[in-house]
Amino acid sequence: MLGLMQSRPLLVSTLIDYAATCHGGREIVSRDPDGIIHRTDYAEIARRAKRLAHGLQRLGVGFGQPVATLAWNSYRHLELYYGVTGSGRILHTVNPRLFPDQIRYIINHAEDAYVFFDPVFAPLVEQLAPHLPLVRGWVALCDAAAMPAVKVETLLCHEGIMAAASEDYAWPQFDENTASTLCYTSGTTGNPKGVLYSHRSTILHAFAACAADAFGFTARDSFLMVVPLFHANAWGVPFAAALAGVKLVLPGPRLDPKSIYTLLQEEGCTTSGGVPTVWLNFLAWVEERRAQLDLSRLKLNRVFAGGTAVPRSMSAKFRDLLGVYLLHAWGMTETSPLVTAASLLARHQHATPDEILDMQATQGRQVYGVELKLVGAAGETLPHDGQAVGELKVRGNWVISGYFKNEGGQVTDPDGWFGTGDVATIDADGYVRLTDRLKDVIKSGGEWISSIEIENLAVSHPDVFEAAVIAMHHPVWQERPLLLIQPKPGRQPTREAVLQFLAARVAKWWLPDDVVFVDSLPHTATGKLLKTELRARYHGHLAVSG
Amino acid sequence: MLGLMQSRPLLVSTLIDYAATCHGGREIVSRDPDGIIHRTDYAEIARRAKRLAHGLQRLGVGFGQPVATLAWNSYRHLELYYGVTGSGRILHTVNPRLFPDQIRYIINHAEDAYVFFDPVFAPLVEQLAPHLPLVRGWVALCDAAAMPAVKVETLLCHEGIMAAASEDYAWPQFDENTASTLCYTSGTTGNPKGVLYSHRSTILHAFAACAADAFGFTARDSFLMVVPLFHANAWGVPFAAALAGVKLVLPGPRLDPKSIYTLLQEEGCTTSGGVPTVWLNFLAWVEERRAQLDLSRLKLNRVFAGGTAVPRSMSAKFRDLLGVYLLHAWGMTETSPLVTAASLLARHQHATPDEILDMQATQGRQVYGVELKLVGAAGETLPHDGQAVGELKVRGNWVISGYFKNEGGQVTDPDGWFGTGDVATIDADGYVRLTDRLKDVIKSGGEWISSIEIENLAVSHPDVFEAAVIAMHHPVWQERPLLLIQPKPGRQPTREAVLQFLAARVAKWWLPDDVVFVDSLPHTATGKLLKTELRARYHGHLAVSG
After folding, report:
1. Pick from A70, A483, B473, B511: CA 20 to 30 A from residue A171's CA?
2. Is B75 near chain A, with CB under 8 Å?
3. What whole-number distance in Å separates Cα of residue B283 and Cα of residue B262?
4. Which residues of B touch A402 (CB under 8 A)?
5. Chain B within 8 Å of A173 (Cβ-Cβ)?
6. Which of B368, B373, B415 best tests the A interface by mutation, with the highest count of A CBs <10 A?
7. Comparing C-alpha atoms, which of B276, B277, B291, B354 is closest to residue B321?
8. DSSP symbol at B33
9. Residue A499: φ, ψ to 5°
10. CB A81 within 8 A of CB A238
11. Rounded to 5, what percent of chain A is helix, strand, coil?
12. Three-state DSSP state, B240
């Protein structure tokens, strides 16, 4: 028997409608690349989003057609978030920091009808345009006076489109499973793959993000959006903020510590979110200037960080310098992204400050709406005991069922579990600790050895500058760990000394079968170890000891 | 184009699964009618809910069949919440305080297969059973030792059913629009009507209830559930609490101030919710004993109240005595119930304590997920300006589309708006203030006059004990207000004196056309003015002045 409740589609347009009706005057503050502050509010964002919907119609962008952005965090980018999706088109946020070749691939693959870009990206646009035959026009996110000189066939002005369009528009109603936004993941191997979010997944994710133990947004909050709008929907913040009536502060491209500090203080920000690198710089800057700064003027009380693991010391510094709780959260583009958040449990009321920092160093515990499981080398489900190490699998309403255009084929098992490619433990309270990437783990005789843990131990040896652990082929154990070491300048550690050092610190069967000393280790453009190259070179390495 | 995200049904079973997995050890504390405390946790509630599902199967209760409860707040009632709904059956919570005739009507109308009852209701069950031919069995919520002597054909023991059933059970998957719970509204006229909630509406409502500006539940909270489980799903708390990992404290039938105080203190409750009457008694009791009580041992920081309007003085007393924020919330059985909650906005950071109390005296502002509108006498949509008075209409995913078995016919307009029967204003910030019931409002020449406002003014006259304002027929204005007054003992106010008193305080056209003095006014069993009777008697009253 069916219930007798209304069943209205969960649409992104209901978020901006709600914010406009109930928090219409709540500010949206943007800082442009020149540092100039622009102020608007939810009511105006809603009106302009409707104008934009009309504008897209006039440009002939059909229902379900993707529109790309190459833009920093600004109110114009935010109104694209609502105008494009609310009218049933797809917002494709492109990361302008990717290599131009990747951007070209992505925009072609997505078949974007138009590209909306910040004037600062004019040179990039000029470089891309000749290779993007499917793009019908390029829209500069500015007014007529600020129009950049760009040699492209069809150059349009965003404010021109807006001025010509009416704001008298009713959001269309459609199936809540309709696509809303599109984001490509930039994996280390292969072409980027598209994640196509739906209106339903976006709304459910926004609800989960607003829970008190996740973002915990209230109508009193002011959020500095350090995380870019092109990074997994800025973690869903544009949607969650509208749901709760949060003031948004959009910092544009400048994320240096001083710019962040100024906005936090002047806009009364209570909360913010961004990747650890930004916060590392910020905290170092604050610490240096502690004597000069009047920290009591900051209203900041909690900050979210994710994207890469958050060091324990960062949580300590946020606490000690600013009295701020650092919420370590985890997820992927493929998971919308929120899966876990390191919030406190009741038992932490009696925990020591150190125990709380330990907890904050985990990726956090699962939010309601997604399910987690750990799967061992033989496909068996492992216990949540904080010890068992397995691949982390996830399923739920904001987890992908497949990539755009079926790239990569079937990505979930028949029960819907998506393999994250991360290796982790989960403790009895549900806190997840990522220990390695699945592709980097050493599969030795049906058991897994974490490459990262051995690397971390190896670099604590006084003679070691950097270390990499990769799998080498073994006739009996399938794989065994091989340790590659770049010594510190002038130091000459021996194989035996390093192994002895490790033997005191890891289980016997984790001990690398051999150590190779190298002059340098290869890295990706973003500074990560390039293990694919190391594996290609050393997979067949024959250990001195068998 | 459809998104490529998973679309898993939103089912109530996912809530208890989540709580069992991520908050398995979080306590569920019950106090039975004898004051004995029972402790269990989410993991055990989940296991027992699965046992119950098996038990229902053995009893031959089919998918979609309703099962009734006549029970106070206890862990057994809570496991029925999950076991019955999770397995695809319908939980019908019956208010045991209704007249036996109403209960009989409701259980017959719902076609409940079994009735689970607290032993304390044995006499009621014996009285009801002969009139309920469709009920196949009566299940006492106790163990064998506590079984009451009840003369019914089939008497079963809850713990007996549980003991015989296995907990090895996988929740079935089904359409999220499937019915989950059933609650009857007891209107003042006509038969009670059933509201049939769905799994989807329940999950979406739980998400909204957990938002930081609504219940704001965290995993550190301990909630004393004063609101009964048979009252609109206890405002959705059983579901919201599982979503957030909240400790639940279930007080059984005893809601006297001392019992409440003891539980709040001993179970470290941070929050609670119940109707204003309970809190009025509680606050008076606390105030009297302030000197003896060690109030610093209470961890209570916020309390929700609703069901009837919350007096301003109650918010003040909660604040002054206990440092507690009283969240005035509003909704109806037909709206799951949460529609509005009186939480703070950013602008209240600069508000005076008095302004905050004023805000807390409103019904609050709309939560995301429901829409509100005000409709005037001629069907026109009215502005949200805090002045315009109209009928409050609501729509959204947790608002009914119709009553069970289509009682009352079509209850929404073609756009899905449900008329609440309440008359209200909405201010620019979205705060709703209920001013009257639609049936009590006086429709004078296309404008509305609030009966309640005139009554409140009239009783502030020193000679007036109680007042009622009803509509009397008028040839030109259709309706005009008639004021009925019961004077204070020994006082003899005159018509002229009362009207003069009012004239200084209301708009001229609101002034009653006549005043009638009576010895007493008729009331319902729950103490409300019985205006139907007054209207029947006085609708044709001829005013002295035309």
Report:
1. A70
2. no
3. 14
4. 4
5. no
6. B368
7. B291
8. T
9. -65, -40
10. yes
11. 35, 25, 40
12. helix
B1·A179 Cβ contact <8 A: yes
Which residues on chain B are in Cβ contact (under 8 Å) with A3?
177-180, 196-201
Amino acid at B170: A
* B chain contacts of residue A2, beta-carbon cutoff 8 Å: 175, 177-179, 198
SS3 B114: strand
- Residue A208 and residue B212: Cβ atoms within 8 Å? no
Q: How far apart are the CA of B307 and the nearest CA of chain A, in angstroms?
A: 21
E strand or H helix at B538, and its extent? helix B531-538
Beta-ladder partners of A222: A247
Overall pTM surpassing 0.95 (yes/no): no
CA distance A3 to chain B (A): 4
| Gap between the Cα atoms of B520 and B524, Å rounded | 13
Touching check for A180 and chain B: CB below 8 Å?
yes
Which is catalytic among the residues A334, A391, A455, A479?
A: A334
Residue where the block lists tokens 């994640």: A195
Separation between Cα atoms, residue A76 and residue A158, nearest integer Å: 9
Cis peptide before A337 (omega within 30 of 0): yes
**Which residue does chain B place closest to A89, by CA atoms?**
B1
Q: CB count, 10 Å around CB of A357?
A: 17
> From first to last of its 546 residues, what are the pLDDT tens digits of chain B?
999 999 999 999 999 999 999 999 999 999 999 999 999 999 999 999 999 999 999 999 999 999 999 999 999 999 999 999 999 999 999 999 998 999 999 999 999 999 999 999 999 999 999 999 999 999 999 999 999 999 999 999 999 999 999 999 999 999 999 999 999 997 656 789 999 999 999 999 999 999 999 999 999 999 999 999 999 999 999 999 999 999 999 999 999 999 999 999 999 999 999 999 899 999 999 999 999 999 999 999 999 999 888 989 999 999 999 999 999 999 999 999 999 999 999 999 999 999 999 999 999 999 999 999 999 988 999 999 999 999 999 999 999 999 999 999 999 999 999 999 999 999 999 999 999 888 888 988 878 888 988 998 998 899 999 999 999 999 888 899 999 999 999 999 999 999 999 999 988 999 999 999 999 999 876 677 888 889 989 988 887 654
Residue of A nearest to B212 (CA): A212
User: What whole-number distance in Å separates Cα of residue B450 and Cα of residue B441?
Assistant: 5
Pairwise CB contact (< 8 Å): B177 & A7: yes
Q: B5 to chain A: which residues are within 8 Å by CB? A: 177, 196-198, 200-201, 336, 397-401
B21 touches chain A (CB under 8 A): yes
Q: Which of A1, A371, A430 sits opposite B64 (nearest CB)?
A: A1
Residue type, A190: G
